[in-house]
Structure formats: C-alpha cells, structure tokens
Predict the structure.
Amino acid sequence: MQKPGEEMAKAKIRGARGVSRSKASREPAAHREIKQRLIMAGKVLVAEGQDDFTRGHISFRLPDDPNLFFMKPHSIGLDEITMQNILTIDLEGNVVAGTARRHSEVYIHSEILKVRPNVNCVIHTHPTYATALSATGRGLKCYSQPGALFYESLGIYTDTINLIRSHAMGAGVARALGGGRGVLLKNHGVVVTGSTIDEAVIGVIMLENGAMVQLLAEAAGDPAPEFPREDIEQLKYDISRLEQFKVNFDYLARRVERRGK
C-alpha cells in the first residue's frame, strides 16, 4: 500500500515533467533544430580532438532575433551539451534564458556577432597544432587544401594570452577577425566563424589540419613555394560552398552515431 507522502512526491515529479514537456512544446521548431545541431556539433568537435577539458564553446544566432544567440554553458564538455543546458544570451553577454553558468569568454561570441551580421556561428577551441602555429607569429600558409579555406582570411590576435573576459577584449578579437573566417589567438587557441553550424565546425577542423601540415612541412625543411594566387583562390571557392560543409558535417555526425552504438 502506498503512503500519502510517496504519492505526493510522485505527483510533484509528474508535474515537473509536465512543465518541462510543456516548455519544450512551446519552443519554436526552428530553435529545437538549432539546439539539436549544436548538440551534435559538440560531439563532432570532441571526436575530432577539439576538446580541452570543459574549455571551448560554440554559439549560434537565433534566426528570428539576431540580437540573441544560443551558447554552450560553463563547466561541461562540448560533448555534454543538452537541450536543457543551452543558454540564450544577448549581444551584451547577458543570459536571458537558462539556468546554467555562463562562460566568462562569452564576449568572444557577443562582440563578433555584434559587428558581423553575416556570421551566425562562432566556435572557440584550443586545438594543438593551430595553437602551436599561433605561437610562432606566422600566419597559415596554403601548404594543403585545408589551408586554402583560410587563404587571406585568418587574423592574428596578439593582445594577451589571457581569457577574453571583457567587452573590450572581445572587441579586440572581433577587430582581428575583421571580415575573415577565423582568428589565431596567440598562445591561446582559435576562433572560427560561419554562417551555419556546419560551416564553422568543418572550418575549425580544417584549420587544425592546415596548421598540422604546415608545421610538419616546415619541420621537414624549406617548403617549396605555394601555388599561384589564382589557383589557390579557385580551390578556396570550390571548397567553401555551403553544401560542401553540410556534406562533411553530416558524415562526421554519422560517424559519431556509429561509434556510440
């Protein structure tokens, strides 16, 4: 026989679940799809070696309100993003929805999204080879096809090695980005942008691949000259179409799902 206290506790749990389901049902379908893509993006980034403990973050601008964006919260890994813990944040870095802790480096995202209306997704990670390249003070060369994606489109931020924890510091990263695709944060990591989640995720992976090839080529000796500008620009065009990013993201997502079985 069930005790009155037990029945009351179960009723509260049922009520809480009902509220959760009610909130989820009220959320626009487009928002749910974006969150699901962010969740998979986090898993892909970890599978591709972009994780560094709980550091690193990804954001995406809300399509129906460009002054707000979704963002991974603090204290969890990129592969631990869920529908429930994703935060909604404004362009001043204030949390407007969600209860999780906000990343202190939110200003990387807010300041870039503030000045780049064509950017919807921002990723910040600490990949090994790209960070090593940033420490050399040299830019990315087109010693590989991934390097072509960032040809004349990769800034270098040299103000500090410290965390980007203020509006002014975030604005400095946005200035280093300019109209480009990404930024090397000297001795720190990278920031890569895209109009879609797919573009930003594949971009940050390709940046790491390009940096790895460059450092290996330079370590092996004196690399031969890059190909002519026209050749590199054609390749850059060919590999930077949105459908290319989607095809490759979808493949990496399928691979994550196979490994999870």
